[in-house]
Amino acid sequence: MTAETVSGAASAEPGAESPRRPVNFGIVVFPGSNCEYDAHHALSTFPDAAPHYLWHKDHDLDGADVVVLPGGFSYGDYLRTGAIARFSPIMQEVSEFARAGGPVLGICNGFQILAEAHLVHGALLQNRGLKFICHPQYLKVERNDTPFTRRFQVGQVIQIPVNHNEGNWTAGSESLRQIEEQGLVVFRYCDERGNVTDGANPNGAVDNVAGIVNEAGNVLGMMPHPERVCEAELGGTDGRGVFGSLIDHILEQ
Amino acid sequence: MARVAIYVTPKAGILDPQGVTIERALPALGFEGVSAVRVGRYITLEIEGAEGDELNAQVESMSRRLLANPIIEDFFVEIVGDQEYPHDSCGGSEEVIVGEENTPRKAGEHAASPWTAADPYASGQEETEADAEGNEDFEKGKEGVITSEDKPPRKAGEHAASPWTAADPFASGKEEVAKEDREAGKE
Protein backbone atom coordinates (compact mmCIF):
# COMPACT_ATOMS: atom_id res chain seq x y z
CA MET A 1 0.00 0.00 0.00
CA THR A 2 2.94 2.25 0.50
CA ALA A 3 3.59 2.77 -3.14
CA GLU A 4 -0.06 3.49 -3.67
CA THR A 5 -0.21 6.05 -0.92
CA VAL A 6 2.72 7.86 -2.40
CA SER A 7 1.50 7.94 -5.95
CA GLY A 8 -2.18 7.97 -5.18
CA ALA A 9 -3.47 10.37 -7.23
CA ALA A 10 -5.18 13.00 -5.59
CA SER A 11 -1.95 13.93 -3.94
CA ALA A 12 -0.58 15.46 -7.06
CA GLU A 13 3.15 15.40 -7.30
CA PRO A 14 4.88 18.43 -5.95
CA GLY A 15 5.20 21.05 -8.61
CA ALA A 16 2.49 19.65 -10.80
CA GLU A 17 0.87 22.62 -12.37
CA SER A 18 -2.26 21.23 -13.88
CA PRO A 19 -4.59 18.76 -12.21
CA ARG A 20 -4.12 15.23 -13.42
CA ARG A 21 -6.55 14.01 -15.97
CA PRO A 22 -7.91 10.54 -15.39
CA VAL A 23 -6.32 7.74 -17.35
CA ASN A 24 -8.83 6.17 -19.65
CA PHE A 25 -8.79 2.36 -19.42
CA GLY A 26 -10.80 0.53 -22.08
CA ILE A 27 -11.71 -2.98 -20.97
CA VAL A 28 -12.70 -5.13 -23.93
CA VAL A 29 -15.64 -7.43 -23.31
CA PHE A 30 -15.85 -10.55 -25.47
CA PRO A 31 -18.64 -13.07 -25.28
CA GLY A 32 -17.37 -15.34 -22.52
CA SER A 33 -15.14 -12.81 -20.79
CA ASN A 34 -15.65 -13.05 -17.04
CA CYS A 35 -12.98 -10.89 -15.43
CA GLU A 36 -14.02 -7.57 -16.90
CA TYR A 37 -15.90 -6.57 -13.74
CA ASP A 38 -12.92 -7.45 -11.57
CA ALA A 39 -10.68 -5.34 -13.76
CA HIS A 40 -13.16 -2.48 -13.72
CA HIS A 41 -13.52 -2.69 -9.95
CA ALA A 42 -9.77 -2.87 -9.37
CA LEU A 43 -9.20 0.15 -11.58
CA SER A 44 -11.97 2.08 -9.87
CA THR A 45 -9.89 1.99 -6.68
CA PHE A 46 -7.34 4.23 -8.40
CA PRO A 47 -8.37 7.88 -8.24
CA ASP A 48 -6.49 8.52 -11.47
CA ALA A 49 -8.13 5.76 -13.47
CA ALA A 50 -11.32 6.02 -15.48
CA PRO A 51 -12.25 2.48 -16.55
CA HIS A 52 -14.95 1.74 -19.07
CA TYR A 53 -16.02 -1.23 -21.12
CA LEU A 54 -15.53 -1.72 -24.83
CA TRP A 55 -17.76 -4.15 -26.68
CA HIS A 56 -15.91 -6.55 -28.94
CA LYS A 57 -18.16 -5.79 -31.92
CA ASP A 58 -17.35 -2.11 -31.87
CA HIS A 59 -14.70 -0.57 -34.02
CA ASP A 60 -13.91 2.15 -31.52
CA LEU A 61 -11.59 2.27 -28.54
CA ASP A 62 -13.50 5.26 -27.23
CA GLY A 63 -10.42 7.30 -26.46
CA ALA A 64 -8.73 4.66 -24.33
CA ASP A 65 -5.22 5.45 -23.10
CA VAL A 66 -4.76 1.81 -22.13
CA VAL A 67 -6.54 -1.24 -23.49
CA VAL A 68 -7.16 -4.20 -21.18
CA LEU A 69 -8.10 -7.63 -22.50
CA PRO A 70 -9.56 -9.35 -19.43
CA GLY A 71 -9.63 -12.98 -18.44
CA GLY A 72 -12.40 -15.43 -19.12
CA PHE A 73 -13.42 -17.95 -21.72
CA SER A 74 -13.96 -15.90 -24.84
CA TYR A 75 -16.03 -17.86 -27.34
CA GLY A 76 -16.02 -20.80 -24.98
CA ASP A 77 -12.34 -21.41 -25.68
CA TYR A 78 -13.47 -23.19 -28.84
CA LEU A 79 -10.80 -24.32 -31.29
CA ARG A 80 -7.96 -22.83 -29.23
CA THR A 81 -8.10 -20.31 -26.42
CA GLY A 82 -8.30 -16.83 -27.87
CA ALA A 83 -8.38 -18.10 -31.45
CA ILE A 84 -11.84 -16.78 -32.27
CA ALA A 85 -11.71 -13.63 -30.14
CA ARG A 86 -8.57 -12.66 -31.97
CA PHE A 87 -10.75 -11.98 -35.03
CA SER A 88 -13.36 -9.94 -33.19
CA PRO A 89 -14.02 -6.60 -34.89
CA ILE A 90 -12.41 -4.54 -32.14
CA MET A 91 -9.15 -6.48 -32.37
CA GLN A 92 -8.39 -4.59 -35.55
CA GLU A 93 -8.39 -1.35 -33.57
CA VAL A 94 -6.52 -2.98 -30.71
CA SER A 95 -3.81 -4.13 -33.12
CA GLU A 96 -3.48 -0.69 -34.66
CA PHE A 97 -3.42 0.88 -31.21
CA ALA A 98 -0.69 -1.54 -30.15
CA ARG A 99 1.38 -0.98 -33.29
CA ALA A 100 1.15 2.76 -32.67
CA GLY A 101 2.68 2.22 -29.23
CA GLY A 102 -0.45 2.26 -27.10
CA PRO A 103 -0.22 0.11 -23.98
CA VAL A 104 -2.21 -3.12 -24.15
CA LEU A 105 -2.50 -5.45 -21.16
CA GLY A 106 -3.78 -8.96 -21.76
CA ILE A 107 -4.60 -10.94 -18.63
CA CYS A 108 -5.01 -14.71 -18.77
CA ASN A 109 -7.47 -15.22 -21.64
CA GLY A 110 -6.40 -11.76 -22.75
CA PHE A 111 -2.82 -13.08 -22.97
CA GLN A 112 -4.07 -16.00 -25.02
CA ILE A 113 -5.84 -13.62 -27.38
CA LEU A 114 -2.71 -11.46 -27.74
CA ALA A 115 -0.65 -14.55 -28.54
CA GLU A 116 -3.16 -15.73 -31.13
CA ALA A 117 -3.11 -12.24 -32.62
CA HIS A 118 0.71 -12.39 -32.74
CA LEU A 119 0.93 -9.22 -30.68
CA VAL A 120 3.18 -11.10 -28.27
CA HIS A 121 5.35 -14.13 -28.98
CA GLY A 122 4.54 -17.75 -28.45
CA ALA A 123 1.40 -19.71 -27.77
CA LEU A 124 -0.35 -21.10 -24.72
CA LEU A 125 -0.82 -24.82 -24.43
CA GLN A 126 -2.80 -26.79 -21.93
CA ASN A 127 -1.18 -26.97 -18.50
CA ARG A 128 1.24 -29.86 -18.34
CA GLY A 129 -0.73 -31.45 -15.52
CA LEU A 130 -3.92 -31.19 -17.59
CA LYS A 131 -5.57 -29.60 -14.60
CA PHE A 132 -7.21 -26.25 -14.19
CA ILE A 133 -5.13 -24.39 -11.63
CA CYS A 134 -6.24 -21.63 -9.31
CA HIS A 135 -3.96 -20.47 -6.52
CA PRO A 136 -1.73 -17.63 -5.36
CA GLN A 137 1.52 -17.64 -7.30
CA TYR A 138 4.89 -16.02 -6.69
CA LEU A 139 6.36 -14.16 -9.61
CA LYS A 140 9.76 -12.69 -10.17
CA VAL A 141 9.83 -9.29 -11.84
CA GLU A 142 12.43 -9.33 -14.61
CA ARG A 143 12.01 -5.81 -15.92
CA ASN A 144 10.81 -2.53 -14.50
CA ASP A 145 11.38 -0.45 -17.61
CA THR A 146 8.04 -1.29 -19.14
CA PRO A 147 4.83 0.73 -18.80
CA PHE A 148 3.43 -2.16 -16.76
CA THR A 149 6.15 -2.68 -14.19
CA ARG A 150 7.76 0.65 -13.33
CA ARG A 151 6.47 0.51 -9.76
CA PHE A 152 8.34 -2.74 -9.19
CA GLN A 153 12.01 -3.45 -8.63
CA VAL A 154 13.94 -5.82 -10.87
CA GLY A 155 14.18 -9.12 -9.04
CA GLN A 156 11.27 -8.29 -6.76
CA VAL A 157 9.09 -11.22 -5.80
CA ILE A 158 5.40 -10.50 -5.94
CA GLN A 159 2.34 -12.65 -5.40
CA ILE A 160 -0.51 -12.67 -7.91
CA PRO A 161 -2.99 -15.52 -8.37
CA VAL A 162 -3.15 -17.75 -11.42
CA ASN A 163 -6.43 -19.19 -12.63
CA HIS A 164 -6.27 -21.07 -15.90
CA ASN A 165 -6.22 -24.30 -17.85
CA GLU A 166 -4.07 -23.17 -20.77
CA GLY A 167 -1.18 -21.22 -19.33
CA ASN A 168 1.63 -23.37 -20.59
CA TRP A 169 3.46 -20.79 -22.65
CA THR A 170 5.73 -22.06 -25.36
CA ALA A 171 7.65 -20.93 -28.41
CA GLY A 172 9.91 -22.53 -30.97
CA SER A 173 13.50 -22.97 -29.84
CA GLU A 174 14.94 -20.29 -32.10
CA SER A 175 12.16 -17.91 -31.25
CA LEU A 176 12.72 -18.62 -27.59
CA ARG A 177 16.40 -17.78 -27.87
CA GLN A 178 15.59 -14.42 -29.42
CA ILE A 179 12.93 -13.72 -26.82
CA GLU A 180 15.43 -14.29 -24.03
CA GLU A 181 18.17 -12.33 -25.79
CA GLN A 182 15.88 -9.38 -26.17
CA GLY A 183 14.71 -9.71 -22.58
CA LEU A 184 11.04 -9.83 -23.41
CA VAL A 185 10.13 -11.88 -20.36
CA VAL A 186 8.69 -9.62 -17.68
CA PHE A 187 7.40 -12.09 -15.09
CA ARG A 188 8.55 -15.61 -14.27
CA TYR A 189 6.98 -18.15 -11.96
CA CYS A 190 9.18 -18.58 -8.90
CA ASP A 191 9.12 -19.67 -5.30
CA GLU A 192 8.75 -17.23 -2.44
CA ARG A 193 12.46 -16.57 -2.41
CA GLY A 194 12.53 -15.74 -6.07
CA ASN A 195 14.07 -18.98 -7.26
CA VAL A 196 12.90 -19.73 -10.76
CA THR A 197 12.62 -23.50 -10.56
CA ASP A 198 10.60 -26.20 -12.23
CA GLY A 199 9.00 -26.92 -8.89
CA ALA A 200 7.68 -23.37 -8.81
CA ASN A 201 6.32 -23.67 -12.32
CA PRO A 202 2.58 -24.27 -12.07
CA ASN A 203 1.80 -25.08 -15.68
CA GLY A 204 4.96 -26.14 -17.50
CA ALA A 205 5.54 -22.83 -19.25
CA VAL A 206 8.92 -22.78 -20.97
CA ASP A 207 11.51 -20.89 -18.92
CA ASN A 208 8.78 -20.30 -16.30
CA VAL A 209 7.38 -17.50 -18.43
CA ALA A 210 4.36 -15.93 -16.75
CA GLY A 211 4.32 -12.65 -18.62
CA ILE A 212 5.96 -11.37 -21.77
CA VAL A 213 6.07 -8.12 -23.70
CA ASN A 214 6.46 -7.44 -27.40
CA GLU A 215 9.70 -5.95 -28.72
CA ALA A 216 8.45 -2.40 -28.32
CA GLY A 217 7.49 -3.16 -24.72
CA ASN A 218 3.99 -1.70 -24.97
CA VAL A 219 2.04 -4.97 -25.11
CA LEU A 220 2.09 -7.27 -22.11
CA GLY A 221 0.48 -10.67 -21.90
CA MET A 222 0.42 -12.32 -18.48
CA MET A 223 -1.33 -15.37 -17.12
CA PRO A 224 -1.65 -14.22 -13.46
CA HIS A 225 -4.51 -11.90 -12.50
CA PRO A 226 -3.28 -8.58 -11.07
CA GLU A 227 -6.85 -7.27 -10.88
CA ARG A 228 -7.56 -9.78 -8.14
CA VAL A 229 -4.93 -8.46 -5.76
CA CYS A 230 -5.58 -4.75 -5.66
CA GLU A 231 -7.06 -4.51 -2.19
CA ALA A 232 -5.63 -5.78 1.08
CA GLU A 233 -9.09 -6.95 2.10
CA LEU A 234 -9.06 -9.30 -0.85
CA GLY A 235 -5.74 -10.87 -0.05
CA GLY A 236 -3.07 -8.69 -1.52
CA THR A 237 -2.09 -5.51 -3.24
CA ASP A 238 0.73 -6.59 -5.52
CA GLY A 239 -1.54 -6.22 -8.53
CA ARG A 240 -1.70 -2.48 -7.91
CA GLY A 241 1.84 -2.19 -9.19
CA VAL A 242 0.75 -3.17 -12.68
CA PHE A 243 -2.15 -0.74 -12.97
CA GLY A 244 -0.35 1.96 -11.04
CA SER A 245 2.59 1.69 -13.41
CA LEU A 246 0.28 2.17 -16.37
CA ILE A 247 -1.24 5.23 -14.76
CA ASP A 248 2.19 6.71 -14.11
CA HIS A 249 3.21 5.93 -17.65
CA ILE A 250 0.26 7.69 -19.22
CA LEU A 251 0.34 10.69 -16.89
CA GLU A 252 3.97 11.33 -17.61
CA GLN A 253 3.51 11.39 -21.33
CA MET B 1 -19.10 -28.14 -53.74
CA ALA B 2 -15.87 -29.66 -52.51
CA ARG B 3 -15.36 -31.61 -49.36
CA VAL B 4 -12.15 -30.87 -47.51
CA ALA B 5 -10.47 -32.62 -44.60
CA ILE B 6 -7.88 -30.80 -42.52
CA TYR B 7 -5.59 -32.51 -40.05
CA VAL B 8 -4.06 -30.41 -37.31
CA THR B 9 -1.28 -31.93 -35.23
CA PRO B 10 1.10 -30.64 -32.56
CA LYS B 11 4.44 -29.63 -34.01
CA ALA B 12 7.52 -31.69 -33.41
CA GLY B 13 9.18 -30.59 -30.21
CA ILE B 14 6.04 -28.98 -28.84
CA LEU B 15 4.82 -30.51 -25.63
CA ASP B 16 1.49 -32.27 -26.02
CA PRO B 17 0.14 -32.80 -22.49
CA GLN B 18 -2.83 -34.80 -23.73
CA GLY B 19 -0.62 -37.14 -25.71
CA VAL B 20 1.68 -37.65 -22.74
CA THR B 21 -1.22 -38.44 -20.47
CA ILE B 22 -2.71 -40.93 -22.90
CA GLU B 23 0.67 -42.52 -23.34
CA ARG B 24 0.89 -43.00 -19.61
CA ALA B 25 -2.62 -44.40 -19.41
CA LEU B 26 -2.19 -47.06 -22.08
CA PRO B 27 0.10 -49.36 -20.08
CA ALA B 28 -2.56 -49.39 -17.39
CA LEU B 29 -4.83 -51.00 -19.95
CA GLY B 30 -2.21 -53.56 -20.83
CA PHE B 31 -0.96 -51.88 -24.02
CA GLU B 32 2.80 -51.97 -23.63
CA GLY B 33 5.39 -50.43 -25.90
CA VAL B 34 3.33 -47.47 -27.04
CA SER B 35 5.20 -44.22 -27.52
CA ALA B 36 5.00 -40.90 -29.35
CA VAL B 37 1.29 -40.41 -28.72
CA ARG B 38 0.20 -37.08 -30.13
CA VAL B 39 -3.30 -35.72 -30.11
CA GLY B 40 -4.50 -33.59 -32.97
CA ARG B 41 -7.68 -32.38 -34.53
CA TYR B 42 -9.55 -33.54 -37.61
CA ILE B 43 -11.70 -30.94 -39.29
CA THR B 44 -14.04 -31.46 -42.21
CA LEU B 45 -15.86 -28.84 -44.20
CA GLU B 46 -17.53 -28.14 -47.51
CA ILE B 47 -16.78 -25.23 -49.78
CA GLU B 48 -18.91 -23.86 -52.58
CA GLY B 49 -17.54 -22.08 -55.57
CA ALA B 50 -13.79 -22.40 -55.41
CA GLU B 51 -11.92 -25.01 -57.41
CA GLY B 52 -8.37 -26.05 -58.11
CA ASP B 53 -5.65 -23.66 -57.04
CA GLU B 54 -8.13 -21.19 -55.66
CA LEU B 55 -9.65 -23.86 -53.48
CA ASN B 56 -6.24 -24.96 -52.27
CA ALA B 57 -5.26 -21.40 -51.50
CA GLN B 58 -8.47 -20.76 -49.59
CA VAL B 59 -8.12 -23.83 -47.45
CA GLU B 60 -4.48 -23.20 -46.76
CA SER B 61 -5.21 -19.62 -45.78
CA MET B 62 -8.03 -20.53 -43.41
CA SER B 63 -5.90 -23.27 -41.91
CA ARG B 64 -2.97 -20.97 -41.33
CA ARG B 65 -5.01 -18.10 -39.98
CA LEU B 66 -7.60 -19.86 -37.88
CA LEU B 67 -7.86 -23.64 -37.91
CA ALA B 68 -4.26 -24.18 -36.82
CA ASN B 69 -1.79 -22.05 -34.93
CA PRO B 70 1.43 -22.39 -36.96
CA ILE B 71 3.51 -21.64 -33.88
CA ILE B 72 2.51 -24.87 -32.21
CA GLU B 73 0.72 -26.88 -34.85
CA ASP B 74 1.24 -28.41 -38.28
CA PHE B 75 -1.62 -28.97 -40.61
CA PHE B 76 -2.22 -30.69 -43.84
CA VAL B 77 -5.13 -30.52 -46.14
CA GLU B 78 -6.85 -33.22 -48.09
CA ILE B 79 -9.20 -32.11 -50.85
CA VAL B 80 -11.78 -34.84 -51.05
CA GLY B 81 -13.90 -33.23 -53.73
CA ASP B 82 -17.25 -34.94 -54.06
CA GLN B 83 -15.94 -38.16 -52.57
CA GLU B 84 -16.71 -39.24 -49.08
CA TYR B 85 -14.46 -38.12 -46.31
CA PRO B 86 -11.56 -40.47 -45.74
CA HIS B 87 -12.75 -41.77 -42.43
CA ASP B 88 -15.61 -40.39 -40.52
CA SER B 89 -19.32 -39.98 -40.44
CA CYS B 90 -19.46 -36.23 -40.93
CA GLY B 91 -21.90 -35.54 -43.70
CA GLY B 92 -20.29 -37.88 -46.14
CA SER B 93 -21.32 -41.22 -44.83
CA GLU B 94 -23.62 -42.98 -42.49
CA GLU B 95 -20.90 -45.42 -41.69
CA VAL B 96 -19.18 -45.33 -38.37
CA ILE B 97 -15.48 -46.13 -38.34
CA VAL B 98 -15.58 -48.74 -35.67
CA GLY B 99 -18.51 -50.35 -37.37
CA GLU B 100 -21.26 -51.80 -35.32
CA GLU B 101 -21.11 -54.94 -37.38
CA ASN B 102 -17.55 -55.53 -36.41
CA THR B 103 -17.85 -54.70 -32.78
CA PRO B 104 -21.22 -55.37 -31.36
CA ARG B 105 -20.97 -53.99 -27.89
CA LYS B 106 -23.21 -55.76 -25.52
CA ALA B 107 -24.62 -53.99 -22.59
CA GLY B 108 -22.30 -54.18 -19.65
CA GLU B 109 -19.32 -55.15 -21.70
CA HIS B 110 -17.49 -52.00 -20.74
CA ALA B 111 -18.98 -51.69 -17.34
CA ALA B 112 -15.61 -52.02 -15.63
CA SER B 113 -13.61 -48.84 -15.28
CA PRO B 114 -10.65 -48.88 -17.62
CA TRP B 115 -8.56 -47.54 -14.79
CA THR B 116 -9.06 -50.50 -12.55
CA ALA B 117 -9.65 -53.38 -14.92
CA ALA B 118 -6.61 -55.35 -15.87
CA ASP B 119 -7.60 -55.33 -19.52
CA PRO B 120 -11.02 -54.00 -20.35
CA TYR B 121 -10.43 -54.58 -24.03
CA ALA B 122 -9.69 -58.24 -23.68
CA SER B 123 -12.96 -58.92 -25.43
CA GLY B 124 -12.40 -56.27 -28.04
CA GLN B 125 -10.11 -58.13 -30.37
CA GLU B 126 -12.29 -57.43 -33.40
CA GLU B 127 -12.44 -53.82 -32.58
CA THR B 128 -8.69 -53.59 -32.79
CA GLU B 129 -8.69 -55.24 -36.17
CA ALA B 130 -11.33 -52.90 -37.40
CA ASP B 131 -9.22 -49.99 -36.30
CA ALA B 132 -6.28 -51.37 -38.18
CA GLU B 133 -8.36 -51.64 -41.33
CA GLY B 134 -9.52 -48.14 -40.88
CA ASN B 135 -5.95 -46.99 -40.69
CA GLU B 136 -5.08 -48.79 -43.87
CA ASP B 137 -7.88 -47.03 -45.65
CA PHE B 138 -6.60 -43.82 -44.25
CA GLU B 139 -3.12 -44.49 -45.55
CA LYS B 140 -4.43 -45.42 -48.97
CA GLY B 141 -6.62 -42.39 -49.03
CA LYS B 142 -3.68 -40.14 -48.39
CA GLU B 143 -1.72 -41.26 -51.38
CA GLY B 144 -2.12 -39.04 -54.32
CA VAL B 145 -5.03 -37.05 -53.11
CA ILE B 146 -3.39 -34.97 -50.47
CA THR B 147 -2.92 -31.45 -51.63
CA SER B 148 -0.17 -31.44 -49.23
CA GLU B 149 0.44 -28.50 -47.07
CA ASP B 150 3.55 -28.58 -44.98
CA LYS B 151 5.22 -31.90 -44.53
CA PRO B 152 3.93 -35.39 -44.20
CA PRO B 153 3.57 -36.69 -40.67
CA ARG B 154 6.87 -36.80 -38.89
CA LYS B 155 9.07 -39.81 -38.80
CA ALA B 156 9.36 -42.30 -36.04
CA GLY B 157 11.93 -41.43 -33.45
CA GLU B 158 11.61 -37.73 -33.89
CA HIS B 159 9.90 -37.53 -30.56
CA ALA B 160 12.35 -39.77 -28.82
CA ALA B 161 12.95 -37.50 -25.86
CA SER B 162 10.15 -37.20 -23.39
CA PRO B 163 9.41 -33.56 -22.67
CA TRP B 164 8.75 -34.57 -19.10
CA THR B 165 12.24 -35.71 -18.41
CA ALA B 166 14.33 -33.71 -20.84
CA ALA B 167 15.91 -30.63 -19.38
CA ASP B 168 14.94 -28.67 -22.45
CA PRO B 169 11.62 -29.72 -23.94
CA PHE B 170 12.67 -28.07 -27.16
CA ALA B 171 15.97 -29.81 -27.41
CA SER B 172 14.66 -31.81 -30.32
CA GLY B 173 12.77 -28.91 -31.78
CA LYS B 174 13.82 -28.07 -35.28
CA GLU B 175 14.73 -24.63 -36.40
CA GLU B 176 11.85 -24.63 -38.83
CA VAL B 177 9.51 -24.29 -35.92
CA ALA B 178 11.07 -21.02 -35.05
CA LYS B 179 11.10 -19.84 -38.62
CA GLU B 180 7.42 -20.39 -38.94
CA ASP B 181 6.97 -18.71 -35.65
CA ARG B 182 8.74 -15.70 -37.00
CA GLU B 183 6.74 -15.69 -40.19
CA ALA B 184 3.55 -15.96 -38.26
CA GLY B 185 4.61 -13.04 -36.15
CA LYS B 186 4.97 -10.87 -39.22
CA GLU B 187 1.55 -11.59 -40.52
The mean pLDDT of chain A is: 92
How far from one another are the termini of chain A?
A: 24 Å
CATH topology of chain A: Rossmann fold
Helix content of chain A: 10-25%
For the secondary structure, the number of strands of chain B is 3
Shape of chain B: elongated
Average of per-residue pLDDT values of chain B: 63
Q: Tell me the CATH superfamily of chain A.
A: Class I glutamine amidotransferase (GATase) domain
Helical fraction of chain B equals: 25-40%
Uncertain residue ranges of chain B: 89-187
Number of domains of chain B: 1
CATH second-level architecture of chain B = 2-Layer Sandwich
- Percent in strands of chain A: 15-25%
CATH topology of chain B: Mth169, Chain: A
Total domain modules of chain A: 1
Give the overall form of chain A: globular
Which CATH class of chain B is shown? Alpha Beta
Order of helices and strands of chain B: EHEHEHH
Oligomer: heterodimer
| Biggest pleated sheet of chain B | 3 strands, antiparallel
In angstroms, what separates the terminal alpha carbons of chain B? 30 Å
